[in-house]
Amino acid sequence: MNASAPIKHTQAESDLLERFDSAKEGLSGSVAVKALREAALGQIRDRGLPHRRVEEYKYSDLRAYMKSAAPLAGAADEAAARSLIETQDGFGDLDRYRIVVANGSYLAALSDVEALASEGVTLTSVAEALAGEMGTKLVAAPKTGPSDGVIALNTAFLQGGVVITVKSGVEVSKPVELVQVATAKGAQSVRNRVELGEGAKLRLLETFVGDTGEGELNTVFDYELADKSALAATRLIVSKTDAAQLFTTIATIGAEAELKSLGFIAGPQFSRNQQFINFTGENSEAKIYGVTMAGGKSLADQTLIVDHAVPHCNSREFFKTVLDGEAKGVYQGRINVAQHAQKTDGEMMTQALLLSEDAEMANKPELEIFADDVLCAHGATSGQIDEDLLFYLRARGIPEDEAKTLLVLAFLSEAIEEYGEDDVTEGLEARVRDWLADH
Amino acid sequence: MLEIKNLHARIAEDETEILRGIDLTINAGEVHAIMGPNGSGKSTLSYILAGKDDYEVTEGEILFNGENLLEMEPDERAAAGLFLAFQYPIEIPGVATMEFLKTAMNAQRKARGEDTLSIPDFMKRVKEAAGHLNVSMDMLKRPLNVGFSGGEKKRAEILQMSLLEPKLCVLDETDSGLDIDALRIVSEGVNKLRGPDRAMVVITHYQRLLDHIVPDVVHVLSKGRIVKTGDKDLALELEKNGYADYIDTAA
C-alpha cells in the first residue's frame, strides 16, 4: 500500500467526523465492534467519501453530491411511526406480516413478533446483538470487494436493524414487509440480516416511509441462504428526497438455493442500490432485476457484482431504466466466474429508455471469466420512445401523454413481469404512473 | 363528410413532393376506392389523413365534417371519428391487446365527453366483435400485434375499427398479406360497418378486395393526383388493362 497525503475533507466529511465524536458513546457494540466502527471511520477520514476517482463510483460521485452530513436521527416516537406506516402504505390490501425499523432501530412494538414466531420466524434487534458474540459477524461484510465506502459509512454509524431468522423447512405463508420509518429528520444507518435455514422460503418486501431531511439513508441487507432455501426480495427506493439513498445487498447463496430480487428506484435525487451476490454452493440460481426511473437532475445507480465461485450456478440480471430531464442513470453489472466454476450460466441485460435529449445513461456490463465451459452473455441498449409506436397509439385516440405512459409501463413491465411476485408488484404500476405524472 | 381541396404534400425530411393537388369529396354512406400503382401517393394520403408528422402539407386543406382536419392532433382526429386501418399494423410489446382496446375506447369517449365503459359492457362489446372476426380470447390477451400472423394483424385492425365505431374508415391496403379466407373474414367485418352515417376510403392495388367490398366510386391515383374517377367498373377495367394508360395521362 502506498501511503498517501492526508486528504482535504469536504464539509460533509468534516460533519461525519464530528457526528462520530458526538454519537459514539451512544452507538452500541462490543469492544470488537467498536474497533470495527473506528476502522470504518478511519477509512472515511483517510480516503473520504467514495468519489469519481474510485472505479466503482466513477459515475456516482457521493463525495461531490453530499454537501453536508446531518446528525443521526434520534429515537423514534412509536405513535408517529404507526401513523406514518398507516397513512403512507402503498400496498393496500396486500396480506402481509410487518417488521418495523424506525429511525435506525428495530421497533418490536410495531412488528408482528408473535405471528411470525408461530410460523418459525424469529426477530432479533441488531442494536442488542452488536453488544454480544454475534456483533462482529453482523458488521463483517464478506466478499464485498475492497472496502466499499458506503458500507464503511454504514458500519461506522450503524444504529441497528433487525435479524430475521427463518427456521429450516419453514415456508413463510405471507410476504413480510420490512418497513423502515423516519419519524424525525436525521441520518439513518441500518443493517438487517436475513437468515434462511435449509429449505426455508421467504418473500420479503423492503419499503421506506417518512422523511430523513438532509440525513442520508444508508441501509445494508445481508442475506444468508442455506441450502435449498429461497428468498424473493422486493426493494422499493421511492421518495422525492434530496438525501442520498444508499442501499447495499450482500448475499451468500448455498447449494440448490434461489435468490430473486427486484430493486425499484423512483424519485430520489441521489440513489445507489448496490448488490454483491456470492454463490457458495452448487446448482443455485440468482435472478436480479432492476427498475429505475430518474428525472430532473437526479442520479440513480444500480450496481451489482455476481460472483460465481462454484460450478453449476445460474444468474440472470435484467435491468430497465427510464430517464427524463437531465437525469443520469448508472448500471454497473459484473459477473465473475472463477476458474473452477464450470457450467456457469450467466445472462445480463440492461436497457434504457431516454425520454429527453439531455438524459444520460452509463451502462457498464462486465464479464470476467476464468472457466472454459460456461455460458455467459451480456447486452446493453439505450433508446428513445419509438415514434411509430406512439403514432399508432395516438391514431387510436390515445392522447400523447397517456400513450407515452403506456409505452413506458410496457418497457418497465418486461422486467417486473419476469420477476413475478404479482401480488407484491401489482402496486408498482401506480408508482410508475405517479412518477410519470411528476415529470 | 370529407373534403380534400387541392392537397399538396411532401416528405418532411427530404422535401420530396408526393401529393400534387388532390381534390376529393366523400359523403356519408359512400365507399370510395383509391387505386393506383406503387409510389402514386396512396399510403401518404392515408397517413396525412391520420396525422403522421413525417409529411408536410404545403398547399390545400382537408375538412372533416366541416372542421379543419390538419389542425387536429392524431388523437383528436381519432376521437372525432377518423380511423386508419394500417397497412402494416405496429407491434407493441408489453401492451396487452385487451388493455389497449379499453384504453383507446375510453380515451375517445372521454375526449367526446362521454362516460367511460363499465368492465362488463366493454367485455360484452369485445366478445361480440371478436366473435364475428374469428379473433380468439387468447389473441386478445397477447401483446398487441406481437407474434400475430399477417391475417391476425389485419383482423385485429378491423376489430379495433368495429369497437371504435368511426365515422370515416380509411383502409390502407387491408388486403395485402391476406389469403382468400382471411380476405373474406376481413371483408365481411368491413361490410358489417357500412351504413348511411359512415363513409369509407378503401386503398388498394388490386381489384380483388373490391369484389368483396363493393365501392360506390373508384379513383385512380397517379403521381400524386387523381387522374380518373368512375364507378366500380373502373376497377375491373384497371384489372384488365393495368395502370399504363393513366400513368401516361398524368405525365
Automatic annotation (TrEMBL), chain A:
Residues 184-411 form the SUF system FeS cluster assembly SufBD core domain. GO terms for biological process: iron-sulfur cluster assembly. Residues 14-177 form the SUF system FeS cluster assembly SufBD N-terminal domain. Pfam families: SUFBD_core (PF01458), SufBD_N (PF19295). It comes from the Bacteria. Belongs to the iron-sulfur cluster assembly SufBD family. This is FeS assembly protein SufD.
Automatic annotation (TrEMBL), chain B:
Keywords: ATP-binding, Nucleotide-binding. The keyword Nucleotide-binding applies. InterPro entries: AAA+_ATPase, ABC_transporter-like_ATP-bd, ABC_transporter-like_CS, FeS-cluster_ATPase_SufC, P-loop_NTPase. It comes from the Bacteria. Residues 2-248 form the ABC transporter domain. GO terms for molecular function: ATP binding; ATP hydrolysis activity. Pfam families: ABC_tran. The keyword Iron does not apply. Belongs to the ABC transporter superfamily. Ycf16 family. This is ATP/GTP-binding site motif A (P-loop):ABC transporter:AAA ATPase. It comes from Roseibium aggregatum (strain ATCC 25650 / DSM 13394 / JCM 20685 / NBRC 16684 / NCIMB 2208 / IAM 12614 / B1).
